[in-house]
Amino acid sequence: MIWRAHPTGPMGAHIWAPELHRIGGKWYIYFASAPAEDVWAIRIWVLENAHASTNPAWTTTPRCGSRRWPTHGP
């Protein structure tokens, strides 16, 4: 298990579209999530792992983008 949804909050529900990437020697998992009470507050998040293996602990980086979908501009 790499990560579990938070019990509540913006990373607590509506988890979807995970993508695993290896960029510049680091692993990244991009995914979308939203609070249980507001499916349309969905945001993109990133988990980061600097190890060669995907097994060690992952850290959550600040969310990507703004309050709008990335395709809608800043």
Automatic annotation (TrEMBL):
Pfam families for this protein: Glyco_hydro_43
Q: Has keyword Hydrolase? A: yes
What InterPro entries does the record tag this protein with?
Answer: Glyco_hydro_43, Glyco_hydro_beta-prop_sf
Keywords attached to this entry: Glycosidase, Hydrolase, Signal
Q: Which family does it belong to?
A: Belongs to the glycosyl hydrolase 43 family.
Q: Which PANTHER family match?
A: GLYCOSYL HYDROLASE, HYDROLASE, FAMILY 43, PUTATIVE (AFU_ORTHOLOGUE AFUA_3G01660)-RELATED
**What protein am I looking at?**
Uncharacterized protein
- Lineage of producing organism: Bacteria, Bacillati, Actinomycetota, Actinomycetes, Kitasatosporales
